[in-house]
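Q: Start with the shorter request: fold the first protein.
A: Done. Sequence, then structure:
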Amino acid sequence: MDTVIVEHAEMSTKSNSCCSKKGPGYATPIEAMSGPKESVIYVTCVYSGTGIENPDYLATIDVDPSSPTYSKVIHMMHVPYLGDDLHHSGWNSCSSCHGDQSANRRFLILPSFVSGRIYVVDTKDPKAPRLHKVVQSEEIVQKTGLAYPHTSHCLASGDIMISCIGDKDGNAEGNGFLLLDSEFNVKGRWEKPGHSPLFGYDYWYQPRHNTMISTSLGAPFTFIKGFNPQHVSDGLYGRQIYVYSWPRGELKQTLDLGNTGMVPLEIRFLHEPLGDIGYVGCALSSTMVRFFKNPDDSWSHEASKSSWWVLTPRLTALRARYLSWRYLASLMMLLSLKLRRSTS
């Protein structure tokens, strides 16, 4: 029988009190818009579901129009294992560390959704990144009980926080938030004991309102092999967003979005640094939910129907080989892009 010793950790106390110091990223989105354009981009490429037994890889693509290799893949960094399913990625430091001159946006964090590993990639040579470290899933499970890592964000403290959707057996009850330190060692869970959400997926934090809000997909064992509509009726998919105190990790409020907010996935606050409004796209109900802060510091929400995307009975009837969780996530990304363009 496996032994899991759940460790809970506090964020580092490092603080960036002055944005006049220049660390990585930008002080505001307006400042970022005037910054230089990217010359390369990194794309995770996966073989999951293809029947091809090859390791996933990180592709480096040249996006400099003046370059002779413009729009071409100029480098591929293969990971050493099979069956990882590289997913969302994040940096070791970013604009949240803008006031810290010692911070350096150099390492790319690649969670592996299926295997539970976390790869740390060194981009010192931006055109030829190399593998720096592998945080093994066994260590993460033993110290925290967490598996199925999804969203990675850098923190102003120098730590890295990753949302995890379940336990090693694919149960939603084991989900929570993993903390890595600045050397990519496992510190423990971020949320306080007894404050884990019912379901997990994405999250976004707004430090100027001392708030983090997370979303809920469902139990990994239900969707990892394909989407079954019966699991929605069985209550194995989420319809809640969770409001946490930041950075203390205490669950303060659960907003039940009801049937008009089924499976809330990607979540974003406004790009206004002082903003207390955000949006989350709900995949199965085809809604964009707006959430906002009330005068009494509680949070509320309202939903608006998307007119361009309808989850038809024919689509919901699709089984595993037609609508896997990967295609569901892709559709959700398209929805988010469409709505982002319409509101920009």
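Q: Next, the second protein, separately.
A: Sequence, then structure:
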Amino acid sequence: MRVSLIAVAAATVPLAVSAAGTLGYALGARHSDGTCKTQQDYEDDFDVLSKLSPNPSSTPLKQLDPHTEKLPIVRTYSQVDGAIQDTPCNVSAVILPAAQAKGFQVVVGLWAEALDADIKEFHTYAKQYESTVYAVTVGSESLYRYYHETDGHTTGLSNDELNTAINDYTQAMLDLDLKFPVGTADSWNVYNDGTADVVVQNTNVSILLVNAFGYWQDVSICNASLTYFDDLTQAYTHISTVAGRPIEIWNGETGWPTTPGASYGAAVDGINEAYTFFKQGVCALLGWNKNVFYFEAFDEPWKPASTGLSNQTEPETGWGLFNSDRTPKFPNNDYSCTFDTMETNPNILC
């Protein structure tokens, strides 16, 4: 490992600091059959997540919001979810009132390639539920999909296009007298290799989500946490070097899938594998005062396959901390953190 994340923590300055990192959750917009969630569905999701504390009772914090409120947090990806073309889901209309009812905050994701529709949906409700909005991200792996997927730039956005989308949203927000932290979410490697530099240096950007998965690096579970730490260290260090100002940084996605029989090279799906990565990777990062969004809260059986850096595809249906029916996956319902990479029990594989 090149430098420690503890050292990087001193170089990256979040908007506010708490004694332990925050665990948030990526949250999908659909039921297991692909139909759209209702407000009640989101409230039921929040009821489950509100009971999940990654910290043992001896630690001072549970799921603390690094802003002023002590609220749990989720992130979304688009406000008009068009993943199934014939059944788009309007997200803001249902997740924001659910979040307000259950005491959650939301990182509102805007799909940069369909920005106008997402802004219209979000801004219809943004004023009414302003207190539930933690931040706004414009784009989800837009740069990774444009520069690193082998499809001839048919998806995603170039860095200049993404910058324009961020600036366009910022102006639309200010026109409504709204003031949310604005940024983007992308893969660790586009931050580390300089692809995202013009976005990082955009002064309208105040929050960045950095996605990193040991799994998608084609490494075994026993090497996954160190790969995860190393990837984030490289990305966080590069961001702090080129930004020229404080930026709030979160690990925007990480996790490990549990789809039976699936694998990505040396990375093998499994419940004990996911449990091991949570204990040795996610918990350690939280213990180093870094904020993490786990991908994802609940399984999504309707999803198509996804592609990693080696262009191998793998099902993206089994990445949840919980099953799609909200029942727990981990052995003995153990989602606790000791913040110790050396924690052992019979279900930890390494």
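Q: Describe the second briefly.
A: The two ends are 19 Å apart (CA to CA). The longest strand covers residues 133-140.
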